[in-house]
Specification:
CATH architecture of the largest domain: Alpha-beta prism
Distance between the termini: 56 Å
Order of helices and strands: HEHEEEHEHEEEEHEEHEEEEHHHHHHH
Number of helices: 13
Radius of gyration: 26 Å
Strand content: 15-25%
């Protein structure tokens, strides 16, 4: 597949970034099991989220959509969901599949979760394992969707250590923990996004976080609230990179550079996109600047007091690495829009050093008897 990309002729523009998809999914699911109304603004009305919206309606939840990015959910309470007459089609959303599996494992009725050809080809063993340990009975096609979840009156609370850091698996276990008898604990090998914990707390649920251990007590009621979905930084990244590519790193504004670095750090746990940005910048950096990156990583490890595994996780695998690269590349290009005198002084010093180096090399050649 080939793409032809032409530079944009737009000199200045103001872009409205769409809402975050992960938060939009969670606002639908959690808002549906609250007591009262949940009003959501900034909702991402994309195909995946609309599939989740349709699924919650099929489970008996009344959801209105007064505007493209606004929804109002009349919650039915923790035990108010109803059986769907048909399988719940979640399209291409792995997030919806995993979180819904946790939510529906504690219902008294059977449910079937399915999706398109891509989703039904993805392995779901990472959620089936902990949910089965909690007492859920889930049938699958060799660990892949469709998932048939058999109704149960109550789940068992467990202490579950994630083999691989995953916000989706963590969220699935926590949602199932709402229907468990006792305290469910999830232990993470590394910090993951905490969208679910934050939203649960905003709805009145007590969720305890101590280091990498997250705990939730079963049977807690959720209260309806207002949810303002933040803009999706992964979507903003394309605009940021386009602006940098058009105007050039050296002439880009300080705000644009800081925005790119902020996107990388703030979106740290979405490693693939951040590493893409890091890879692009690495191609432009010479050996000396790669050394600076390594030194910066060591300094970061010292400040945060990270162990070697966490250093690798936080520096090489996450957006912090991309943030360091963005800042170092900016410094390497000496694009000091606020410090012209410093730049001039550095350029003059560099020229003087090069002249001394040439004089030294010329003198050496004259002393060499073999020189012609």
């Amino acid at each position: 597949m080939h793409f032809k990309v032409s530079p944009s002729r737009v000199e200045e523009a103001k872009v409205t970034v769409p809402g975050d998809k992960s938060v939009s999914h969670r606002s639908l699911m959690l808002g549906s099991i609250t007591n009262g109304r949940t009003d959501v603004s900034g909702f991402l009305a994309g195909e995946d989220c609309l599939q989740t919206l349709a699924a919650m309606r099929a489970l008996g939840v009344s959801i209105e959509q007064p505007g493209p990015t606004e929804i109002s959910i009349d919650g039915v309470g923790l035990h108010g969901l109803k059986s769907s007459a048909t399988a719940l089609d979640l399209g291409n959303s792995g997030t919806a599949m995993r979180l819904m599996a946790g939510l529906l494992s504690g219902q008294v009725f059977d449910s079937v979760l399915t999706g398109d050809a891509s989703l039904t080809g993805r392995p779901m063993g990472r959620i089936i394992t902990p949910l089965s340990q909690m007492g859920a009975e889930i049938d699958s096609q060799d660990g892949k969707p469709p998932l048939r979840i058999h109704g149960r009156s109550e789940l068992l609370a467990i202490d579950y250590e994630l083999p691989v850091a995953s916000a989706q698996v963590k969220s699935a276990v926590l949602l199932a923990g709402l229907y468990a008898n006792g305290t469910t604990r999830v232990i993470e090998p590394a910090v993951t996004r905490d969208h679910t914990e934050r939203m649960l707390r905003s709805m009145g649920v007590q969720v305890t976080s101590q280091g990498h251990r997250i705990s939730i007590e079963g049977g807690q009621a959720l209260k309806g609230c207002r949810v303002k979905v933040p803009a999706d930084l992964s979507s903003a990244a394309f605009v940021i990179l386009a602006a940098l590519a058009k105007f050039g790193i050296q002439t880009a504004s300080f705000v644009a550079i800081m925005g790119a670095a902020g996107f990388a750090v703030g979106f740290a746990m979405q490693g693939s996109l951040s590493n893409f940005a890091a890879g692009v910048l690495m191609l432009k950096l010479g050996g000396f600047h790669r050394v600076l990156i390594i030194l910066a990583a060591i300094l970061l490890a010292g400040v945060l007091r990270l162990s070697l595994p966490l250093l690798i996780d936080h520096v090489l695998r996450t957006g912090i690495f991309a943030a360091i690269l963005v800042l170092l590349f900016w410094l390497a290009q000496w694009g000091f829009p606020k410090f012209p005198e410093l730049r001039q002084r550095w350029v003059a010093g560099r020229q003087k050093a090069l002249e001394k180096k040439r004089e030294k090399m010329t003198g050496t050649q004259r002393k060499d008897p073999t020189a012609k």
